[in-house]
Design a protein that fits this description.
homodimer, 11 helices
Amino acid sequence: MSTADEPTSPATADTDRTVRREAGQPRTEGGEEGPETGRDAIIRAARRAFTLKPYAEVTMRGIAAAAGVSPSLIVKRFGTKEALFNTVVDFRPAAAELFSAPRPDLGRHLVLTMVDLRDRLRGDPLLRVVFSLGIEDERTLLRSRFREQVTDRLTAVLTGHDARLRAELIAGQLLGLGATLSLHRPDGATAHTTADRLADLYAPGIQHLVDEN
Amino acid sequence: MSTADEPTSPATADTDRTVRREAGQPRTEGGEEGPETGRDAIIRAARRAFTLKPYAEVTMRGIAAAAGVSPSLIVKRFGTKEALFNTVVDFRPAAAELFSAPRPDLGRHLVLTMVDLRDRLRGDPLLRVVFSLGIEDERTLLRSRFREQVTDRLTAVLTGHDARLRAELIAGQLLGLGATLSLHRPDGATAHTTADRLADLYAPGIQHLVDEN
């Protein structure tokens, strides 16, 4: 896939773009070429496949066809289907940025970082886990990964009673923020306000959960 | 739609239950039988198809096969594919319940009603709109419907500045609550707490958005 024909579709915004960053490649808004292009195409095709189909129905052959490469190239670069899945679905980079603020500032930091990440990634860093709720077998894998890489990590950041419960609800607020920004874009009110205003409105609810109740 | 066989109607969105129910098996809880069973199976098959596939790829023939009925029966009962889509995706019943509290109590009412609706529907009343974010053409239809039936309606309930923006963010919090309850079930902390405790924790953030800032 070229970069030029991608940027629009947010369906894709929430998948393909995210993908590009998570692929572990240098950002290159300006059209990557060369040996990494195939890799990038494979990762985008894989993420799309794993997002839209049950895990069991995803085949290396199908991903190869969508990426315009040979199945053997995928195996050479990524190994098994499970290894490829593990490569394309990784919430840790986003979690590392999201949870890197002192607790008293965490609510606001989370909102601003979500907005910034979505902007940089041209897609939402977490929302894919919700897309796949409708798909039975992948759901289990993605869910457990999200819980380890996001919820567990956030739980460890919190102190006080019910840290796990509060972490789950904060994760919900982050997913909800991403969902509503995606849903109401490009013509919604959230699309026409500043990140600071979003934080003014949305962060207090998160901070309420960060602080022990 | 009959009232008896589609109590889960708007949303079955959530998933394990949804999937199980939409798989086309007869409902057992209520034990409906008879002529409505086919209708129920059609609605489940249609909801599943519209959730998991691009709108353009959904066919009456495919829904008929999944429901175990003839395509002509679907046309007879529901009309066109568009009419069937309109029937199976309807956020209004959920919105009517969610937004039926005075503003000073709305935050808590929204959380308790979401939990109650999810329980009664055995699925989330709103979350399907997020599932379909990854699917290009259906997304447009679902998005506009969600905005009309949920966001616009909620905007009309609010007063003060930035009502639209606040409504979009409240919608996000509701979607996020549903997402996290689905993601962390059945073994998460949210699955082992009471609706009142959830409301204690989650409602203040919503109420902050309900109240003018």
